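About this split. The held-out portion is used to measure sequence recovery: a designer receives only the structure tokens and must propose an amino acid at every position. Recovery is the fraction of positions where the proposal matches the reference. Here is one held-out target exactly as it appears in the evaluation file.
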């Protein structure tokens, strides 16, 4: 598992390994990019990368956009069991 606060830190921490699952917050501070945009960029770089966008924003548009992009959306407050179940499902697919 790798954790990073910025995209450049994430890329530096990867050590050339291919990630299996990306957990990303919807609201990112970097250049007003959203977690959906970052996940889409990383999915192009790593085809098949499972992505989970986590947000406190309960707008239907965000859920629809993540679903259309082939991503998962979890709402805050995040229930640990829900996250564990989703990660188990995603990791068993890869």
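Reference sequence for scoring:
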């Amino acid at each position: 598992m790798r954790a990073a606060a910025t995209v450049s830190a994430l890329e530096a921490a990867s050590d050339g390994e291919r990630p299996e699952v990306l957990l990303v917050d919807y609201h990112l501070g970097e250049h007003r990019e959203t977690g959906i945009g970052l996940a889409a960029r990383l999915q192009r770089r790593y085809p098949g990368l499972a992505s989970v966008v986590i947000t406190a924003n309960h707008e239907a548009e965000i859920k629809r956009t993540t679903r259309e992009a082939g991503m998962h959306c979890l709402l805050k407050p995040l229930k640990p069991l829900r996250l564990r179940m989703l990660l188990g499902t995603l990791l068993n697919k890869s």
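Annotator remark: The longest helix spans residues 80-93.
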